[in-house]
Amino acid sequence: MIKNLKLKTLSLAVITSAASTLAIAEPALPPFYQSVTQMKPEGKLGQIIKKEKIATPVAGAQAWRIAYISSDLTGKKTISTGLVVAPIGAAPAGGRPIISWSHGTTGNAQNCGPSQVENPAQNLNQYFLVNGNSWTDYGLPSLEQFIKDGYVVVGTDYQGLGGGGRHQYAVAQTNGRDAINAARAAGSMKETSAGKKTLLIGWSQGAGSTVGASSQAEYIAQKGTAYDGLDMVGFVAMAIPDLAMYRPKNLDEAGSKQMITDFTTAFSDTSFDFAHFSMNMWGTQAAYPDKLKLSDIFTDDAAKVLDEVYQNKCIHVATDTITFNYGTSYKKLLRPEPKNTLAWSQAIIDGSVDNNAKPIAPVLILYGNKDTTLPPVMGEYYRNQVCAIGGNVARVQLPGDQNHFTTPTVSIPLYMPWIKDRLAGKPAVNGCSAENVM
User: Fold this and answer.
1) In which band, very low, low, confident or very high, does the pLDDT at 429 lie, cut at 50, 70 and 90?
2) Which of 349, 254, 344, 243 has the alpha carbon at shortest distance from 291?
3) CA proximity to 117, closest of 228, 33, 197
4) What is the predicted pLDDT for the residue at 20?
5) b/e string for 268-299 if b means 16 or more Cβ within 10 A?
6) Which of 262, 287, 217, 261 is nearest to 377 (CA)?
7) Which whole-number Å values give the CA distances from 248 to 47, 160, 257, 261, 353, in the listed order?
8) How far apart are CA 384 and CA 355, in angstroms?
9) What do you get for the CA distance between the two ends of the chain, in Å?
10) What is the average pLDDT across 2-19?
11) Residue 261 has pLDDT above 70, yes or no
12) What is the reported pLDDT for 25?
């Protein structure tokens, strides 16, 4: 037994040593995305720089892959890719409403964009559900019904997931701009016959994107875009992340160190949670490359490993890689004492949803009572903060015992009538008056 164990250990050491000497190839991309990554982010916000028509199984619909101009939270121009699906036929007076979807976590690598799968223009398909048929989430929520209702539906991949550059994962302010510019892109297409009324909807990372967009009134009102004058009528956030809730009373050296420590502890219970946490740090560093280093938070060796993993692997494979290589010792990848914590804390706060700004339209938060991935307290904190400054935020607990991953499906009967009412111009009730449990 001891001999066999030594042989296995030696074999693993040889494999690891050999692997370290091999050149790591970047992930393969379909031709559409290969060409986009070679393009420069030049043009108006929302301007489509490449598109291709694709098939869709949705009756009465037409679909396209698109690449369009966006920008991050610092104003730097980027390229995002995505998916547009629109009804066929004559549009009503005033054009068709636009639904802009922000997806949940898929990864940080260039090949992790949902629009890249073989047949993306269909209803939301979640890999972990029994009827899931892929290695990743893809598709658009309630797409068939939205098309029947006469809406144009667009889903951003976010920057860095097929358009080049490093993905600013979970940086809600950047992801929100990608969703805003996706709506501009869809509106600019003559084929969609889109109008100005627009509603954003997202889940998990995408809920952060959606609510992150809700506070960007000046960005939305900009002139000179590919499609000016979007009329935002509502925001639906399923399982909202609010990392700013970790903000200390005093953002000084001591407070910032405590914030990073609390954040690290809260999201390191399992290797799955640790993968999301380290991806978040990777994405935040991507937003502020001149101010932050991964080696501020992780050991020097770990920073190199994580950078290689997230440049080449999507979330589930990345998690498996961390679990296989580090097992229960993954916390050893962390620095015993984090460095540069004041800059990191400020970056996390700046990139998170802005709970100090009144949303420009009503917000609906839907959550499951058993969500341990993004605990409901995050949405509660956001609602309390925003209601105190005059925002309209309804927060509804889903029926039964629901976790993070059942949220999108169970939410459908709740968000569909709410969306119809907002697009029909009906005023939303005061969501801050009472908590709702369905």
Assistant:
1) very high
2) 344
3) 33
4) 44
5) beebbbbbbbbbbbbbbbbbbeeebbbbbbbb
6) 262
7) 40, 31, 9, 11, 16
8) 9
9) 57
10) 40
11) yes
12) 58
Sign of CA dihedral 153, 157, 162, 166: positive
The amino acid occupying position 62 is Q
For residues 407 and 204, what is the distance between their CA atoms, to the nearest angstrom?
Answer: 9
Q: What would you report as the CA-atom Rg of the chain, rounded to the nearest whole angstrom?
A: 22
Rounded Cα–Cα distance for residues 334 and 331 (Å): 6
DSSP annotation string for 85-147: EEE-SPPPTT-EEEEEEE----BSSGGG-GGGSSS-SSB-B-TTSTT--SSS-BSBTTHHHHH
Query: What is the pLDDT, as a whole number, of residue 208?
Result: 97
Quick one: tokens of 90?
Answer: 């004559």
pTM above 0.85, yes or no: yes
Give mean pLDDT, residues 257-264: 92
pLDDT range class, residue 267, cuts 50, 70, 90: confident
pLDDT of residue 24: 54
Calculate the dihedral angle through the C-alpha atoms of 182, 39, 107, 139, rounding to the nearest 10 degrees.
40
Give mean pLDDT, residues 401-411: 97
Which among 86, 56, 51 is positioned nearest to 66, based on CA atoms? 51
Q: Is the pLDDT of residue 11 over 80?
A: no
CA distances from 317 to 223, 302, 305, 364 (A): 42, 17, 14, 32
Structure-block tokens of residue 187: 């509106």
Rounded mean pLDDT, 209-225: 98
Residue keyed to tokens 């609010």: 242
Q: Minimal CA–CA distance to 207: which of 68, 436, 41, 374?
A: 374
Pairing of strands 152-159, 48-54: unpaired
Query: pLDDT by residue (tens digit) across 343-387?
Result: 999 999 999 999 999 999 999 999 999 999 999 999 999 999 999
Residue with tokens 């949303």: 359
> Would you state the structure tokens that stand for residue 398, as one six-digit string?
């889903």
Element (H, E) at 260: helix 253-266
Inter-residue contact 419 to 199 (CB < 8 Å): yes
